[in-house]
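Weekly modeling sync, notes
Attendees: AB, CL, MP (scribe)

Item 1: holo prediction request
CL wants a bound-state model with S-adenosylmethionine before deciding which constructs to order. AB pointed out that an apo prediction alone won't tell us much about the pocket. Agreed to run with the ligand included and paste results into these notes for async review.

Input as submitted:
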Amino acid sequence: MRKLYERSWLGVEFISISRPSPQVLASPVFWEDFYQAAFQKIGSWNEIDRVDPDFRKTRTAVAEFIFGRIESHDVILSIGCGVGWIEHCLLELGQGTLHLEVTEVAPAALTLIRQELSPSRVHQGFFPECIPTDRLYSLIFMVDIDFAMDQSSLTLFLSKVKGRLTGEGRCLLISPTLDPPVSLWWTLLRAVKNMLTPLLESVGLSQRKYFFGWYRHKEEFYRVFSQAGYSELSEGFIPAGPNPAGYYWIEARNS
Ligand SMILES: C[S@@+](CC[C@H](N)C(=O)[O-])C[C@H]1O[C@@H](n2cnc3c(N)ncnc32)[C@H](O)[C@@H]1O
């Protein structure tokens, strides 16, 4: 694993949001403040492009990929949906046929996606506590939420996901990885950037970044899934918009 640092997202500079220290992981309070700030800039889905065009392109590609893996009659749960752009795209692609539910820790994040789902399909809080105890899903997916968990927390989290899957249900995790299918040149450039950034920050030439969690190697994703008791693992990459590294996906069955 390697530590992950970020400066801004969805047009919001993290320095403008209260946070105890750049070394501390983002808390639910941080996410609530972040989405409140984001929705001061985003009044509707059309405005996502204005604040962060890469976000829309990347997540639209991810949504199209997920849609391609949905089987008929799937009961689907998205954990940590954030602003819900991916889920908005899925609902459009499904043209009213999808059973999709979402969870999210920060209530403010649900501002737009809430308008497209019935209240019984929107769960605010931490998974799995926020889900009614009798509900099972045939597909549970999560995009870009694992980074905030270390290996043992992610293993525990995935085993809780397993407990909410139907007998043959699948868990699909989508995230950046330290092993993207890119050229050696791109890898070298990234290594140089990673070395220079702390130097530039220390002399005030680059704005401070905040600790957000960890990037993982593919093998580390594989290991947490196996340790959480999953089988039939498959994996690959989603070429996602302007990011040459794309997104890594790993899917496993509950059996
Ligand atoms: C980087 S955002 C990703 C949002 C969305 N999935 C996307 O790709 O646009 C991470 C989100 O995960 C949520 N989150 C963090 N820990 C969580 C947890 N344990 N359960 C559910 N959501 C969580 C945060 O509130 C935040 O909105």
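Recorded for review: The radius of gyration is 18 Å.
Action items: CL to compare against the apo run; MP to circulate these notes.
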